[in-house]
């Protein structure tokens, strides 16, 4: 429960105080202190700084054709403000960096582009994390709240100079980061797909009381993924259509590929959402049918016994047969008891015949098929 | 009930009489008399007038680079007309000021912009209030029906000259007012989110008869918030896209930030609306399942007893065993009674076996689990 | 029933015969003969003709800056054709005038604008009526089927020269007519709102069998209002956006205000439609719950009695206790009868305990709360 | 059944073989041989050819200002190809002519326009038929599969030279055909409206088992009409907005009128679709309520008898009252039997009182109102 | 089950590793080795190479006006890279070729167009396969994963030079391939339509427990077809609207025809989806009605017997009639037993009369109509 509560709250909490000065940098108090790593590279060489001090950053700008500065942890307003001053970032952009619940977007600040996307994690439970990217003429600065990210492969490619990533400028690096972020959605969606299949199997085998709740959880996770990816479609579309000096024509082709992936992910999420809704409808109709059938059979059993009980009741009446020949002479018959039993059996047989004729009884209900029981204990 | 009635009526009541002259200023008779406060400021200084008389207003215009005149209470047509004449406001705009149920919008009257937004209040019950803003070359005039508002932080920043608000012109002041208004939605949405969680907890514990009604109330409040914020998206979009002489390029960047918040709020409301609908579906399926299960168990109990009662009925028949050996000889058997009891028990055992085989009975129904009872009294 | 039938038919009936010559003026045979009134006015003076003969119309055109000719009743093709010829109206426009089920629209015929709107009437039952407006350089000609209309206040303002209506040209008059028409929707929507509230109160008190039907009726009336107002949004939008020589810049501002009212009305109708749907869902879930609860309680009552009846049946068996000590010795016990009664009571107590433990019985069902009964006779 | 199957199949069958050469003219083998009629006319005169041979067609082109050639029956590929060559029609257009399931559309082939629309027929069961129109500089060629059509009035107007149809060019003729086609939808929609009303009356009187099926059928016919008319909106919109040399400005005004009718029809269909859905919901809720009420009353009857039967069972026990004063002394009481009856009556009265207090019984259930029975046999 | 699982997984699996270098060609390991066929042709002649080696491809380019190289099987990265280098294809396009789950799209790479579409197969179960088309100045290169395809008729037309396909350039060939792909959807949709009709017949005959599952399966297959065809609408629209040097004006007309087919297919799929949903609703309401009717009849049977059983119980009480004249004198009456029987019959007759009056019993329930039983075993 508490997990759930925390997750939902994150949709809305930890914004700057209502009415605060626009551009106020109010970090989440639970966020960790910033850690910085830098990659400086050009065609020929690459220098990696595993840990950069705030005072060193100024010296790194412009030393190589491309500087990638990554900041993990947003817990210190002073650090972020200092960085903002060094790179001349607008205060509103910095405010968005620390308010980690921005919608994915692209803001053009003239000298640099400010890009916000969401990464998703988690195969068991989907969570999302904000990645803020500043793309300038000779740098890329990224901010994220937590140390882990989906960007490992990009670092590896930089180190190994594979895929010519070092031959291109900062725009290609920004693209690579976006692409890695979007690629990170695939395993998450795949895990959801696997869980959905498990539930489908369970449902076909009858389902249990947790089925509805499980489907509801998966739906919320699909929606979390969707909220992360959906606005990226529009943001990427803007990046591709509008001309920005920071982005070369060649990189634009790569961004178009990225855009295709986003559209494909949205389609996939839609497909699974629809499968989920169908599964829910199917489960509910299954449950309803099963209960209805049970009730029907039980009612039929009762109905068959009721006339028999009535006959037994009749012959349990205490009319005195000795007073008159009209008073229950059956009681004194030689075959009175067999006659009563026969009357009862006849009633049952007539009712079974009648109910079958009406289609209310089917023989297989009484002789259950040898298939494995559908609702094992 | 009466509360509810009043709230709903406010959607439609208290408009100018149908067919009245356009531009008729017909204040709500229940509205209080206007109270005015003014801030006059420029880069260097700030003069605050806590209470301004109508006759003083003319003298305040143009005395400082920026004049902010705030009017609380719309109950006096003459005051509003006099103000309108002083600032040359269009009669239609003044009519909208006193008809407090305008949709949020931006009207460009050439010399000044007329902006209408809605503020929301209330953590227990959401209400909304209209804020009308006139943005001219050297003034901002705001009108609102009730004294309380979300604008306190802006006043504080003016007094303390924090965030350089005094360095900018009236456009930045108008932006600050819009921003404060929009920020006022966050705590309201957060409170709704908290109430929704409470109901979710209740529902998972079984829910009660008020659950549907509570969900319905929250839905209506979400819709109230949505109606307040949704048209602001379009209005702000117009402010940003179209060029107005009253708004500087720098302020436009701030308005873009404002726009992002509006979009984020709309997303949040959509998220909670969807959660709410899911919760409603879940609650209804829970209730339906519980009742069905109950009915099933009860029906099974009846069904098990019916054949036993029938057997008892048979041996309660009054056939005379002395007349013939066919007439209920069991009655005269030495072990007749144990035989009948055994017959009954055998029937029960067969039925329980058969029902379990069909999956209609589960043992745990009979031996309820040690978990806390789900529907405490 | 017949009322209903008539109303629905009006959606489709009384069009010109399929395949008729375009521009055929085929008046509704049930429509009354045209009655004409005219207002001639300029800045200084106003002449009102309460009844105008067809032969006089030609002489009125151009006598004053503005001529407003209103035609009530469309039952005579000749009159309408003569008027059409006098003012040079296009035959297609005249065909639309007498086919009173046009969608609201604005057609630009160069020399004049042809505007069709719908007025709504009726607080008990909503009906709508077509108003056709021709706006020319120095005249406004209006056609309507029935004498009553929403235009009374405009006539009054003309007579009293209030609101400077006589200072403006025919475009302002046309605007005033549109505005009065749109204002006429407010009391209608308000009446629907009141009826909806009444039904809400009834529903909270349990509702009755008419509730569904009443909700359905209100929904249809909301839809009637919506069909009348919705296309006016588009039509007014066109009037405002496109430049027409007949409409001055000043009037355009007034039309914008009109447009705001239309959007507000559409919003209101949407709000009430949603409230209505919610109310329907709530009512249906209430009904379903109430019936389910009833069934459950009744079933529990039966279930509690069934084992007791069984025990009574057992001791009603006729086994002869004198034959053996095994044959129902209880019958001969000194406390046999109290033992049987105790057995029955014990069974009931166990079942009540068990059912309460399962959450199937709640004590308050048996001792109804002192609150007023929810389903009074 | 077979009717139904045939209708549905027509959505998809009888296309050119998959992968056939584009422009293959593969007529429906069941289509009849083409029959041609021609109208040649100008301002002054009209020549009608009731039956035109293929060899004569070439000689007719250009003899008069306008040639209207109508082809009924598409069963002969050679004829259609020959006509196509005479008029220089594109093969793809000819392919569309014989594949009679095109969506309504307008294709501009430069020299001529190719217009496809759908006519609807049938007051009992709605069917639709394709009408293909080629509009060239001095001719209109129309193709349809079956002899009957909605174009009779146009022929009549040509013959009688009424409405000046002969004064205009082929564009006005094409407009007249479109208009007649669209006018043909009105009686069809009206018939559907009448059937819907009948069903509404039936539903208010309780409905029967065919109601759902009837509603389903009407819905499908509405959808058939909608599929026929909906794409004509877009097609006509294109005709009006884009400038085509074949269409004069005057005709464009007429086409605008045509467009208005299409929009009105779409609105009407939407209205009836909504009425139908409401009616379905209402019927389903009526049925469900009726069954629930029945079940409730029956259950109450049972519940009232169960305790009485129990009491009778108690006094049917065979405890020997002679053995002890504790053993059913009531059996030997002077007023024992009246006491038992009184006990039973008391139980019933208590239960009826209790059930009424709970709102489960209403007296009018027992004494049905004198209104006509709602569910007559 | 396993089939199903495989199908669903294909939506998402087998993408390049997350974070891999963009343009990585990672073929599906289960894909077969590429097999190549080539057609070289111009107006006069055609050379067909049934099997082309990788080393021969370079020599084929430019030998004839048009080269069509088709590659079946995508299991070898080296082959695809070599081909990409020969034709100068962009790496991102090649990556899309082997990731066979692209959305249909058209990418303009300047020198050539890259077109992705989906073919559907299967009358029993719908599957889809990707077809990637590179359209260059003098070549068309196609890639597909599996040997079978819908392109056979195009090959045949090339060989037989029918339809002048050899007179046109590669753009017409690409069009022909697209057209053949789209034509391949028709038989698939038709098969779905046939299956839907079968289910409709079953449903009208009562349906069985598989009906819901079958409908669900068909819905998923419709969705598969829809996902394949829907994005082709947008892609083809782009091809038609935007000017590409590779596509001639004449071919553009053919593409427009293709576009019409896509729109028609989307309409058809929508029609069948709606039919399916209606059928599902109808089936569910049928099932629910049937069960409700059954329950009602059974309940009525019980209700009729309950009072009779009660009367029997009363006369089974053991009050001693000899003690007083008040104690069940009926037992000693001469016609006591017939009186009791008459009492019972009277009760039954009253109840049947009352129930019929209320509309709860209809005679035809008891005497089922001679129509064939609706739910045969």
**Overall helicity of chain A:** 40-55%
Summing up helix and strand content along with how strands pair, one would put the structural category of chain A as alpha+beta
Largest sheet of chain A: 7 strands, mixed
- Provide the β-strand percentage band of chain A: 5-15%
CATH topology of the largest domain in chain A: Beta Polymerase, domain 2
User: Strand tally of chain A, please?
Assistant: 7
Give helix and strand order of chain A, one letter per element, not per position. Answer: HEEHEHHEEEEHHHHHHH
Q: What's the CATH superfamily of the largest domain in chain A, by name? A: CorA soluble domain-like
Shape of chain A: rod-shaped
CATH class of the largest domain in chain A: Alpha Beta
Q: How confident overall, as mean pLDDT of chain A?
A: 84
Low-confidence stretches of chain A: 1-10, 368-377
Q: What number of structural domains do the residues of chain A give?
A: 2
Output the strand order for the largest sheet of chain A: 2-1-3-7-6-5-4
Radius of gyration of chain A: 36 Å
Largest interchain contact: A-E, 72 and 73 residues
| Assembly classification | homopentamer
CATH architecture annotation of the largest domain in chain A: 2-Layer Sandwich
Q: Give the N-terminus to C-terminus distance of chain A in angstroms.
A: 27 Å
Instruction: List the total number of helices of chain A.
Output: 11
